[in-house]
């Protein structure tokens, strides 16, 4: 069972759109040092659909290498592609590298029937010997998981689900169905929103975008929750929700880069067509103030870099 606070970490590129492995390595290590429990690679935040398979494998290898310097860190590559062949190939490459598990959205862009989605996951599960997770993200995949779908996938050997919408009716039904059936099946929140109520329901892991730029806040939230420190966890949860709301003014990948720059770190570039606002935009100063206020309210020191925009 995967537990703790993981990150859908962003992938760094240079201004020409090439992978920037040095900055990506720094970011992974920095987040681990700040208490992040694992990496969810090349998903939406990580620009996976904008990358070649070879580029994604480079990121998988890098993550495995960085995690080797720490104890007990999870590495979960997202291997989902628009087709089965490339997804299976990525899954096999990830397994060879020695990751802990893999995850995939349903094949996207085209709209597929449930039978074809089930066959897609069956092909992945049969291709590897490590846990396979479904990644429920209907906004990008055009497929909506139901309890019935999850039951069928569970019977096929699916290890669990990463759920991004965290819609209470669906997710609670899946959780209590698993509990009633006494079957082993992992449920990971695909966001930090809802962490506390779902934790009390029984969920023990989340993949939180805020770990990209404020891992200190997320670590305090997670550790205080597991320790039963209700006062601290509730305060940290409210601060997390406030920061999150104020950073939802643009795409989450862009916001993560901007927040790192706001802290004074050289956060590279996203891959075009994504672009950062000009560095003289007042938004960076605004984000720095949002983050500083959040850290101050929790009694946390906000480390800053010396990058000059």
Compact overview of the structure:
This protein has a domain of 212 residues: Aldolase class I (TIM Barrel, Alpha-Beta Barrel). It has twelve helices and eight strands.
What does this entry look like structurally?
- By secondary structure, the protein is of the alpha/beta class.
- The chain has a domain at 4-215: Aldolase class I (TIM Barrel), CATH 3.20.20.
- 47% of the residues lie in helices and 10% in strands.
- It is built from twelve helices and eight strands.
- Strands 3-2-1-8 form a four-stranded parallel beta sheet, with helices on one face. A four-stranded parallel beta sheet has the order 4-5-6-7.
- α11 (252-262) packs across α12 (283-297).
- The longest helix has 17 residues, at 230-246.
- The N and C termini lie far apart (42 Å).
Determine the CATH topology of the domain at 4-215. TIM Barrel
**Shape summary:** globular
Biggest sheet overview: 4 strands, parallel
Low-confidence stretches: none
* Average pLDDT taken over every residue: 96
- The CATH H-level superfamily of the domain at 4-215 is Aldolase class I
User: What is the first-to-last residue Cα distance?
Assistant: 42 Å
What series of H and E elements makes up the topology? EHEHEHEHEHHEHEHEHHHH
The first-level CATH class of the domain at 4-215 is given as: Alpha Beta
With strands numbered from the N-terminus, the spatial order across the biggest sheet is: 3-2-1-8
- The CATH architecture category of the domain at 4-215 equals Alpha-Beta Barrel
Number of strands: 8
Helix content: 40-55%
Radius of gyration: 19 Å
């Amino acid at each position: 069972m995967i537990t703790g606070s993981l990150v859908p970490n962003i992938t760094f590129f240079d201004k020409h759109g090439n992978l920037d492995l040095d900055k990506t390595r720094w970011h992974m290590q920095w987040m681990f040092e700040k208490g992040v429990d694992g990496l969810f690679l090349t998903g939406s935040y990580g620009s996976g659909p904008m990358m070649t398979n070879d580029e994604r494998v480079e990121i998988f290898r890098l993550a495995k290498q960085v995690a080797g310097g720490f104890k007990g860190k999870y590495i979960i590559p997202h291997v989902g592609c628009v087709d089965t062949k490339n997804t299976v190939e990525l899954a096999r490459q990830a397994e060879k590298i020695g990751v802990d598990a893999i995850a995939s959205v349903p094949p996207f862009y085209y709209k597929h029937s449930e039978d074809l989605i089930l066959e897609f996951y069956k092909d992945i599960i049969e291709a590897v010997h490590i846990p396979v997770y479904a990644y429920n993200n209907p906004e990008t995949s055009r497929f909506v998981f139901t309890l019935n779908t999850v039951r069928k996938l569970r019977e096929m050997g699916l290890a669990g689900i990463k759920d991004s919408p965290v819609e209470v009716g669906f997710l609670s039904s899946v959780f209590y169905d698993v509990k009633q059936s006494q079957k082993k099946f992992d449920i990971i929140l695909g966001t930090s929103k809802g962490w506390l109520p779902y934790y009390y329901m029984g969920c023990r892991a989340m993949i939180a975008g805020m770990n990209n730029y404020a891992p200190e806040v997320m670590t305090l939230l997670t550790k205080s929750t597991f320790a039963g420190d209700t006062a601290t966890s509730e305060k940290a949860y409210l601060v997390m929700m406030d920061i999150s709301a104020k950073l939802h003014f643009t795409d989450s990948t862009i916001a993560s880069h901007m927040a790192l720059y706001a802290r004074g770190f050289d956060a590279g570039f996203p891959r075009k067509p994504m672009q950062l606002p000009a560095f003289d935009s007042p938004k960076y100063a605004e984000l720095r103030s949002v983050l500083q206020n959040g850290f101050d309210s929790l009694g946390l020191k906000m480390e800053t870099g010396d990058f000059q925009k």
